[in-house]
Amino acid sequence: MTDATCIHEATHASVALHLGLTVREVRVKGWTKVPRYCAQLYPGVVRGMPIRTPITLLEEDCLDVSPFQVLVAMAAPSYLPTDDRRINKYAGLEAMLAYRWADKHGIASIRVQARAQRMTAAVEPEIYEMASRLEQEGVLTAEMLAERHFDQFQQARADHRRRNDEARPHGGEDRAS
After folding, report:
1. Complete domains list, the chain, with CATH
2. Got the DSSP string for 35-72?
3. For tag attachment on the chain, is the N or C end more exposed, with fewer CB atoms within 10 Å?
4. By the 8 A CB rule, do 8 and 134 touch?
């Protein structure tokens, strides 16, 4: 079974990617520095402070540029329970912080909730796939994530073409006779 922390971070990352946010890195091992948007969202966290914690790193200005999308990605793990109560409780805390920040900044938290729930359900298979890879690698870089999304895009395009080809009459003949 995939680690609950990996599932949690993969949920943030998968939803963020599907909402068009740039994910610079997803990590469950090692150290990083607190980005500006985390310092804005999490009370008591200081920008630039070195931390050893699992994290999904977005662009520094993401909260200024795409606040709704960031808040949806932040709340998403609360809609995918794991087998670890501690992680689930933390996911609920993150969601509460996202909703509080939304309401304080003129974004309807009910819209953030609804989108987070829908997006999490829509990308659930991808979440588990990414979590499995994250558990093996410890860190997924932007390049690794982009490669995976490109492969998925190419596969979706091929599937779409195949369905269109199957729906067309063969040889242009009129089959109604």
Report:
1. 4-166 (1.20.58)
2. PHHHHHHSTT--TT-EE-S-EEEE-TTHHHH-HHHHHH
3. C
4. no
* Nearest C-alpha neighbor of 66 from the set 122, 9, 105, 14: 105
> Which helix (H) or strand (E) segment is 165 a member of?
helix 142-167
Q: How many CB atoms lie within 10 A of CB 9?
A: 24
Task: Tell me how far apart the alpha carbons of residues 17 and 144 are, in angstroms, rounded to a whole number.
Answer: 13
pTM of the predicted structure, to 2 decimals: 0.83
DSSP 84: -
Spatial distance between the Cα atoms of 5 and 88, rounded to a whole number of angstroms: 10
Q: Indicate the DSSP class of residue 30.
A: S
For residue 48, the Cα-to-chain-centroid distance in whole angstroms is: 23
Read off the pLDDT of residues 83-98 as tens digits, 9 standing for 90 and up.
Answer: 999 999 999 999 999 9
Q: How many CB atoms lie within 10 A of CB 51?
A: 13
